[in-house]
Write a structure and sequence with these properties.
Order of helices and strands: HEHEEEEEEEEEEHH
Helix content: 25-40%
CATH architecture of the largest domain: Sandwich
Largest sheet: 7 strands, antiparallel
Distance between the termini: 142 Å
Number of strands: 11
Structural class: alpha+beta
Radius of gyration: 42 Å
Shape: rod-shaped
Oligomer: single chain
């Protein structure tokens, strides 16, 4: 019995060690400024099917890769960037669209992308970490795109930095930013809440003791109205005193005479 138990334990040890060697896929990156972002890409099955019959690769296609800071077994082949939504026409945009196509030397490689915005003073804001997707050799069907509505973002000229990370090891495979590629430099961006239509309010001010013609007309109208009210009041008082005098004459005693008698 003891020998049987020991042999069972020895059989379980390799299985346990094998489970420790299983590679895990992960994309855990802290976001300093999470943004409202939607991802766009072809279905994984569609990309995998297209990779089964790839077109003839271009000669030395890697030399045609877009300018980037770092590349290894994977690299950025192309990058398309679009800025949208400038409702107040101030030259700053509140929606960012970025699409890239990356290639790898392997037949397939799971990766994820990290997106940072770098302000003019060098402050870095991590705005998005993508879901995991797969690169298939030099296929052009495995492109990946994000569309971000910018919130809580000060108006500034930003650099965009994109890192491509191996989802199995966590190592950075490629990186490009506005420091290396002018397409990603000086992006005029602002918070979407700042990008609204604003009514134009025109204010005219008169100073130095002078009044405009409208102000003078207004004062004239007020003066005439008050003058008219004063004339009406004086007329009413005169009529009232006359009526009182007539009434006192008929009784033979006036208010003044009554006072003198006392």
């Amino acid at each position: 019995m003891p020998m049987k138990t020991l042999s069972s334990t020895l059989l379980l040890v390799p299985l346990f060690m094998a489970s420790l060697n299983v590679q895990r896929l992960y994309a855990a990156e802290e976001l300093q400024s999470p943004q409202q972002t939607t991802e766009q890409h072809l279905a994984a099955s569609e990309v995998a099917a297209a990779a089964q019959n790839p077109p003839e690769p271009a000669t030395d296609s890697r030399s045609m890769a877009t300018t980037q800071a770092y590349q290894s077994s994977a690299w950025f082949q192309t990058i398309d960037l679009t800025l949208k939504r400038d409702f107040n026409n101030n030259g700053f945009y509140s929606l960012l669209y970025a699409r890239f196509d990356a290639h790898t030397t392997y037949s397939s490689q799971p990766v994820y992308a990290i997106y940072d915005l770098i302000s003019s003073n060098g402050a870095v804001r991590r705005i998005h970490t993508s879901s995991i997707f797969t690169l298939y050799g030099q296929s052009s069907q495995d492109w990946f795109a994000v569309e971000t509505n910018l919130v809580s973002l000060p108006r500034d000229y930003y650099k965009l930095k994109i890192q491509l990370v191996d989802a199995q090891s966590g190592y950075v495979l490629a990186e490009m930013s506005g420091y290396d590629n002018t397409t990603l430099d000086r992006l005029a961006l602002e918070d979407q809440s700042s990008d609204n239509y604003r009514p134009v309010v025109v204010v005219h001010e008169e100073s130095g003791g002078s009044f405009g013609i409208l102000a003078l007309l207004g004062l004239s109208c007020v003066y005439l109205w008050r003058r008219k009210q004063q004339v009406v009041q004086n007329s009413n008082v005169t009529q009232y005193l006359a009526a009182q005098h007539t009434a006192s004459g008929s009784n033979g005693i006036s208010a003044q005479t009554r006072g003198n008698q006392h």
